[in-house]
Specification:
Structural class: alpha/beta
Strand content: 15-25%
Number of strands: 9
Length: about 200
């Protein structure tokens, strides 16, 4: 068994370490990843799910063990998951990404900026060409708090097929883990992948 010990490391290190181990493994190899924080575990499970890998989890205190076996489709799935970042066949997606890095739109008056951002998100659903993804970080994560109108707008966009990637480090920093119920809790590696593969990036 190959062991990947990510304890004590911050995102995206656990994901990068696991990706490297998968790349260096052979079909039939059994891998076990140890992680000691919930965000790392969520990111790892999301990534392994993308590769169609069946995982087995156990938890002992703060340490989570994720075990899986490399199948003959794993590396092909990895290539396909990368390709999906570059290709979008959904008619109402524009192939572009939107970045929400603040709860306010623009750099002027804060109250006005917050009003503009809410208006922006509520009207976005009406566009003929929706973004492929929305990346949310820094205090922009507060836009996704359950119950606020901006979160409802984001939920509608997600239901239309727009992928929401929310910075897990930012969620932890602001203590919002229990208040965000939409999107995918993500990390900087994934965020960089999404932004670098977008046809263009929009910063409201």
């Amino acid at each position: 068994m190959v062991t990947i010990d990510t304890r004590g490391t911050l995102c995206p290190a656990p994901l990068i370490m696991t990706k490297r181990a998968i790349k260096e493994s052979n079909i039939g190899d059994e891998l076990e990843v140890f992680a000691d924080n919930d965000i790392a575990v969520q990111n790892l499970l999301s990534y392994l799910k993308e590769l169609n890998i069946v995982t087995f989890q156990t938890k002992n205190g703060d340490i989570t063990s994720i075990r899986f076996v490399i199948g003959n489709t794993t590396k092909l799935s990895a290539q396909e998951s990368v390709a999906e970042l570059f290709c979008s066949t959904t008619p109402n997606r524009g192939g572009y990404a939107i970045v929400l890095k603040s709860i306010a739109m623009g750099d002027g008056d804060r109250e006005l900026g917050e009003m503009l951002m809410r208006s922006c998100l509520n009207s976005l659903i009406e566009l003929d060409s929706l973004p492929s993804s929305i990346v949310i970080y820094n205090d922009g994560v507060k836009l996704a708090i359950s119950g606020v109108d901006s979160a409802l707008a984001l939920q509608k966009l997600e239901e239309e097929g727009v992928e929401l990637f929310i910075c897990g480090t930012c969620i932890d920093f602001y203590g919002l883990k229990e208040q965000i119920k939409i999107g995918t809790v993500s990390n900087m590696y994934k965020i960089n992948s999404v932004l670098s593969s977008a046809s263009h990036v929009v910063y409201p």
